[in-house]
Design a protein that fits this description.
It is built from 15 helices and 19 strands. By secondary structure, the chain is of the alpha/beta class. It folds into two domains: 158 residues, NAD(P)-binding Rossmann-like Domain (Rossmann fold); 180 residues, no CATH class. Helix 5 runs parallel beside helix 6 and helix 6 packs antiparallel against helix 14.
Length: 455
């Protein structure tokens, strides 16, 4: 059994109180909240498989890495070797991420752990005086987002969410927003976010935990369950792990650890769509499940079996955005965003920006500085570059927790509406579902004993 990972109420409130006072001191006397001591801050990565290594690899031009943490010894060892081969420098490795947070020489942490761990690690990192870069989607519930916002404000930490489409992909998403702001499609009438469907799974048996994996700690705040896997292996991205499992890579198909495709791809495209609509500080007032398919039976919003994937495989969601603009989130059609307005329409994804308004740019280009105005200044070619600049300026980066959480609330509400099979009326000011106590119960979750944040 792993050591409990809960902070005491005194530790949490004491750290917040110190942060609210404006200055927090480490045990070595270092001021936490001041700019990094050099042009190359010192980072650590917590959670290394797949995306954890991806964000680390992209960050090596901008920061030095002093430590890694992962609950899988094999993953930890492989990535320590990759880092040394790439940079020529060794980093320390830990199974317990708290060892990283105890170190005074680390300025910021990058979190690539599964979604159900994001909030706990993020909060504890900020309370330990670290700036944070956390992979998307940031949270598993809406109330987790509120907690992170509170701690960011009270500690003064810099916090970047890993929605890289805001900084990368040849600026095409920024150009899309600039087109809209410049009136190239007139008034927006509809936005469609295509975010791909998913597949169910066969029955997945409980088997022995792989050697080197601390399964209890991997589960962390989630309920204690058996490790499950079938022998067939995944190819391509996420390869080297079972195709069907409740752990590495495939955890995205389980509501216990993720929000399925709705949160995985939705965190990218719904983010850009919400930004384009100027709804980054509000969100929808109603979310309706037009159609959906779940791979297992549900009762009262919960799956009735625990040995198969349980997140939606197909869906069409209608979100009523400010100005009564409909946003459709669908598993059908091309992956990307279709913007439709009174004067035209265009489509954007990671491979293209297409449509007549785009073609017209050849003879009628956007005003000079239009893309930079969307970004709020010179555009970073790398999301970590923007994060490091924010660390130095002590200003929040391009993907801040407030706009991310507002966007992600749409995705969370979509999932709740699917689980309960009904439309939800949302109060974006109170951030509560209106007149539905059962639905409101899904705004938070209970953490497993020993893995709580006791506040």
């Amino acid at each position: 059994m792993s050591a409990p990972l809960n902070l005491s109420r005194r530790q949490v409130l004491g750290s917040i109180a110190a942060g609210s006072a404006g200055v927090m001191m480490s045990s070595a006397g270092r001021v936490l909240g001041a700019p990094a001591p050099s042009d190359r801050p010192v980072f650590a990565t917590i959670g290394l498989r797949n995306q954890g290594w991806t964000i680390t690899n992209k960050s090596t031009p901008f920061a030095d890495f002093a430590a890694f943490a992962d609950v899988d010894e094999t993953v930890l060892g492989e990535n320590l070797e990759k880092l040394e081969k790439k940079t020529g420098k060794k980093a320390d490795g830990y199974k317990d991420y708290r060892k990283v947070l105890e170190r005074d020489d680390i300025d910021a942490v990058m979190i690539g752990a599964p979604d159900h761990w994001h909030t706990k690690i993020s909060v504890e990192a900020m309370l330990a005086g670290k700036d944070v870069y956390c992979e998307k989607p940031l949270t598993l519930t809406i109330d987790e987002g509120k907690l992170i916002e509170k701690v960011v404000k009270q500690t003064g930490r810099v916090f970047q969410v890993g929605t890289m489409q805001r900084s990368e992909n040849d600026q095409r998403f920024l150009k899309a927003i600039a087109l809209i702001r410049d009136g190239r499609i007139g008034e927006i009438r509809k936005v469609t976010c295509g975010i791909n469907g998913a597949t169910g799974s066969p029955v997945i048996p409980a088997i022995e935990v792989p050697k080197g994996l601390d399964w209890d700690r991997w589960l962390g705040p989630a309920p204690k369950v058996d490790y499950r896997a079938l022998p067939e292996m995944r190819e391509g991205y996420g390869g080297g792990v079972p195709l069907y499992t409740n752990c590495h890579y495939a955890w995205r198909n389980w509501y216990e650890y993720s929000g399925g495709q709705m949160n995985d791809w939705g965190a990218h495209h719904v983010d850009i769509a919400t930004w384009a609509l100027g709804a980054g500080d509000t969100g929808p007032n109603k979310v309706t499940p037009v159609s959906f398919s779940l791979p297992v039976d549900y009762k009262d919003g919960y799956p009735t079996v625990n040995d198969q994937y349980n997140s939606p495989t197909k869906f069409e969601i209608l979100a009523n955005m400010p100005g009564d603009i409909p946003m459709v989130i669908t598993s059908e059609g091309d992956n990307g965003i279709l913007f439709e307005g009174t004067k035209g329409r265009f489509f954007v994804n990671r491979g293209k920006l297409a449509g007549k308004p785009v073609e017209d740019l050849e003879s009628n280009p956007l005003p000079e500085g239009a893309v930079e105005e969307v970004y709020g200044g010179p555009v970073s070619k790398n999301h970590t570059d923007n994060f490091v600049a924010a660390i130095k300026s002590r200003k929040q980066p391009i993907s801040d927790v407030w706009s991310h959480n507002r966007m992600l609330e749409t995705c969370h509400l979509a999932n709740i509406s699917i689980r309960l099979g009904r439309a939800l009326n949302w109060d974006p000011n109170a951030r509560q579902i209106i007149g539905d106590d059962e639905a409101n119960s899904f705004l938070s979750r209970e953490s497993r004993k020993g893995y709580e944040i006791d506040m």
